[in-house]
Amino acid sequence: MITPANSVAALLTLLPLLAAAFFPAAVADWVRRLPAWAQVVCPAALCVPYVLVACGAGLFRWGWFALYALLPVAIAGLLLQARRADETTQQGNWRDFLILAVLGLAVDLRWFEGAWPAHLAIFNKMLLLDAGIYGFIGVRELEGVGFDLRLRLRDLGIGLRELCFYAPIALLLGLSLRFLHVHLTGLNAWPGFAPIAGAWVFTFFFIAVPEELFFRGWLQNLLERRMGRTPALLLTAVLFGLSHFNKRALFFNWRYVLLAAVAGIFYGRAWREQRRVGASAIAHASVDTIWSLWLR
Fold first, then answer.
1. Helix pair 254-274, 277-290: axis angle to 10 deg
2. C-alpha angle with apex 128: 123 to 133, nearest 5 degrees?
3. DSSP string for 134-190
4. How many CB atoms lie within 10 A of CB 208?
5. Distance between CA atoms of 100 and 237, rounded to whole angstroms?
6. pLDDT tens track for 100-132
7. Is residue 251 exposed (0-12), middle (13-18) or buried (19+ Cβ within 10 Å)?
8. CB of 138 closer than 8 Å to CB of 39
9. pTM for the whole thing?
10. Which of 10, 69, 177, 250 is such that its CA lies 20 to 30 A from the CA of 123?
11. Distance between CA 142 and CA 133 in Å, rounded?
């Protein structure tokens, strides 16, 4: 339901994402100027969207309020310690991987979605993403993330190239495993340019960008420093595939896991070529849009 409170909550939730995506240097500089205690306490403000939505829906609970206020603070505090522990090498330490595990599992297993009205559970994913963005980009100052959505033609070229590399593999595997089903006849064969563009833009910002930032910008980036490029690419792709185990199934959807893991290799290639999330997000959004419109 669109209400003034929900609209304000959505704006506050998107603001950190868009600020970091389009003004990355300014955001990092602003956080850097804060004293250490303020860097840690500042993200407690991420509880405000929860308050607005939950109060409007009659679902406010103090426990959820504490979670959305204190978890971002804990993330910022741990990443401040991580920055001090390896500020020169940025090899990554247990704090980085613990936070990634918590954020990833919380989203994948829907730990906190009970705090929200069913149709607004996306707030949970985006607020956790905001906490990660603030922590890794603002406080941790992790280098080489490539979270800059001021897209370049080179991003488009790389993303579409990896789409073309992945598409025949996906079609061969998906059709043979009966995971993909072609829908190219009837009224839905060509839904029109506006619906296609709308589906792509929604997928880009709310599915591809969050997942590519997490898996490539943070996870693959950190793993590369410890394992090297190829092992990090493959391990991240496997973990990306496993994150889809419960999609479109009650239990373990191994077909989805396999197709997603293979896709993860090509998304990882797109990201690492110039270390830009935009390139891998273009490939990811294009794959998902084609699948949702014609191959689901």
1. 150
2. 120
3. IIIIIIS--TT-----S--HHHHHHHHHHHHHHHHHHHHHHHHTT------SSTTS-
4. 26
5. 15
6. 999 999 999 999 999 999 899 999 999 999 999
7. exposed
8. yes
9. 0.94
10. 250
11. 10
